[in-house]
Request: fold
Amino acid sequence: MKIGQVIKVLRLQRKMTQEQIALEADMATSNVSRIEKGLRQPSQKVLWKLAKALNTTPSVIYAASEQPDGNILDFLEQVKYDEKEDPSFKKNKRVGSSIISKDAQLILKLYSELSPKNKSLLLEQLKTLHKWQEKPI
Reply:
């Protein structure tokens, strides 16, 4: 997972320094640096603080980190576009809720902690389950 890479892209998109993010998130600049370099994975609490400092949500960071390297920036640009176009997105962000349901957030969190081999296995199982599920009439 590339959470650090996503955080760096978001920070640069917003024209912020590591010091500014650290100040907003109430943490040491060295921690931001280590997270961006992939030397440290942020805890849930730290991820929430970083997301807030970057004016986004942890679910957006998780979703972006699952994108192929070349697609992260495009994904984040699309999210930014959606924020401008969808008034409910801004409203949801203001009240601290997220676009993604609590169940989906949990799934993303658990998925992000899997090994690449288990991620692949889970995706295959989900595809099979989706194929087998009964279609609504």
